[in-house]
Amino acid sequence: MNLAELMERFSTVEAARAYLEAQRWPEGPECPHCGLVGEAYKITPKPREIVTEYQTKSELKARRNRKPRQGLWKCAGCRKPFTVTVGTIFEDSHIPLNKWVIAVHLLCASKKGMSAHQLHRMLGVTYKTAWFMAHRIRYGMSQEPLASQLTGVVEADETYIGGKRRHSQSHVKKYGQREQDRIGPVADKAAVFSVLQRDGRVKSTHLDRVLGSTLRQAIREVCAPDAHVITDDARLYNGLHHDRKHSTINHSDKKYVRWEDGVCVTTNTVEGFFSLLKRGIDGTYHHVSRQHLHRYLSEFDFRYNARKMTDSDRREVALQGFNGKRLMLHDPIGKTEKPS
Ligand SMILES: [Zn+2]
Hints:
Helix content: 25-40%
Largest sheet: 5 strands, mixed
Number of strands: 10
Strand order of the largest sheet: 6-5-4-7-8
Radius of gyration: 25 Å
Bound molecules: zinc ion
Oligomer: single chain
Order of helices and strands: HHEHEEHHHEEEHEEEEHHH
CATH topology of the domain at 148-163 and 186-292: Nucleotidyltransferase, domain 5
CATH class of the domain at 148-163 and 186-292: Alpha Beta
Structural class: alpha+beta
CATH architecture of the domain at 148-163 and 186-292: 2-Layer Sandwich
């Protein structure tokens, strides 16, 4: 589906709602309260009768402004009302549903992401709204924990996000300065650790501290016990062979590919993912704060994992992942969700 077709298909809220209903409920509407499938019927709420007696002015105003709930279903089992957005990131949102679907498509289809400012201009919503939409969609794309562990040949590597260091910080050791006072090349940068199954999925995490123990812990969580882990020759990975089958490629010797028992020992695939991530963060988002980095990682992981699909298929996979991911009003971007 190209942009022209997308705009035509989702030109109205009703079209977007019908699309979401068909997506979420292929076997008829499913009640989120009791789980009954295909037994609900559509209802149209009556417009409220406004009784002028016993009501204050502000109450009257609030009632007059309240629109009847659109796309309402009523369960024949538990007699409770619900809509297609209940229990998803769209619940309780006042943003028109077609703008939501278009935003999801744009984020799924742009290889290096899309900034909140661009969404704001393209969708005709305020910048603040666009920022919240993008973060909600990122939250919907997150997969915590992974559906299944990574198997086979798995590449693992770490990278540092945070741009170039300023010139004002001297690289030269001054007289009387201790070795540990000199600022290293990765000081003050955020560490990202990615584990990638060759021809498969990737899982990235933001690490507070890069230690051998935290990297091993991350690999234990993500990789199956019989996986073959390939890393570079950094000393951080020294203890890894206790947990998993482990091969290294000697980057400090300027070697990047070698063969061992018919397995290509290289970390070039995960480096390729890093280059995409870095180009997205440098070129699209410019600045990503530590606090939100793991959300952006979810977004890039999601797009990478669905890289072989068409843009429309990727959008559908994203929408399916939104079920059961409600965000509360007091926590609009899932702040209480534990950063990974
Ligand atoms: Zn029900």
